[in-house]
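Dear colleagues,

As part of the handover before I leave the project, I'm documenting each prediction I ran so the next person doesn't have to rerun anything. This entry is a single chain, and its sequence is reproduced below.
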Amino acid sequence: MTIFPESFVVFQGQDCLIPRQNADSMRFLDDPSLATSTKPEAVCWPFYQIPPDLFSFTSDRYSYSAFEFDEKKYGAIQIEENDDIMLKRLGIGEAIPFPVRELVVSYPSGFSRFMLMAKAHSQWASISRFCGACGNLLVDAKENEEVKERLDDNAYAARFCPSCKRIFFPRMSPAVIILVHRENSILLGHNVRFPRNRHSLIAGFVEIGETLEEAAIREIREEAGIEVKNLRYMRSQPWPFPDSLMIGFVAEWAYGEARPDRNEIDHIAWYRADDLPELPLKGSIARYLIDSFIDGSFSKA
């Protein structure tokens, strides 16, 4: 059985395609009061506008992932960057592209959470079309009569293989991000993929068999060449670029001379609050940890 959402969020690359008539109200940066009233509907397209054959589970069609937010069902679609034909078929050829990261970090927490969920589901839709075990096309698992396992009420994104009977759930990749401090300085590095002079915290994916703490210590050792102590958890953040769950830690420098690994990090140094390079965007967990340390929101001892 196919789940029919009430409306859809459409992504292309790292942009969210929003209705042209909503564009002016979304450009609120000079008037923050506009942001507080932003609702998910501002970036959504009605169900009836989506071509029916998009819902077909065939190898030459797009797929979508359904999810629930504030008791409403939405669908998320990821359109290929060069597929202008599909945009015209969707009737959104005149849509306005908005960077997803801007929508996530610049808007209130409720809308930001909606965008994080929608982007994650669009990514899941694009990679969950075929069974990883037998290669057959997957279908919706929710409310499917062949599925014998009881699914949670909100498991709309679950996929089912009619051939080998396996169930697949949205993938999430845990990654650690760590603020390392030494007295009144914090360790910031420039990743080779970062723009200009932007620096951020040490981060990396958790490997199979590792605990979160082991992954944090390993990443610091590999990317910065130092050892840390007093590692403690701070907070987490979903980050669907493409499918991460960022787990934030703070740690104290123990010993070692910081040096870049020259693979992912090409520059690394200790920075004081009064002499910082370009920082990550506000709203990201990296910026939260940096700002919290500078503001003294958690102990530096």
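The chain has a mean pLDDT of 89. The domain at 173-295 is CATH 3.90.79.10 (Nucleoside Triphosphate Pyrophosphohydrolase).

All the best with the project,
I.
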